[in-house]
């Protein structure tokens, strides 16, 4: 395992077209579906960063800012912004995109913590977080500030 990994090595973006199976009776995304997408995206970011299998340890307060309407594209973005000995903190944001109109808006945000596991399923050390550019450092600092504010 490397001694450090870059923030951008963890960056993950997923898209989901909101279809009827994931909507409520108002034609909007079910909160549980959005949380599922967020957890998957955060897990991928954690695994890309650590090079290990990772499991969800916790999810902080979730802010549902705006609905995602049926037919819109949910864009889920995640990146690692902090690490512990075996833990990985991930910021996840979701935005709704109308591919016909070309518009988008922020819909959901949260912070997840994952634990990296070794081959025996035991928590294992993770790389240090490296921010090699000013943009990476700014992204990390924004996430740290937002996480501290949310707590």
UniProtKB/TrEMBL annotation:
GO cellular component: cytosol
Any Pfam family matching the protein: 4HBT
Keyword Cytoplasm in record: no
Taxonomic superkingdom: Archaea
Ranges of residues in domain HotDog ACOT-type: 8-120
Keywords: Hydrolase
InterPro entries named in the record: Cytosol_ACT (IPR040170), HOTDOG_ACOT (IPR033120), HotDog_dom_sf (IPR029069), Thioestr_dom (IPR006683)
GO MF annotations, alphabetized: long-chain fatty acyl-CoA hydrolase activity
Protein name: Thioesterase domain protein
Source organism phylogeny: Archaea, Methanobacteriati, Methanobacteriota, Stenosarchaea group, Halobacteria
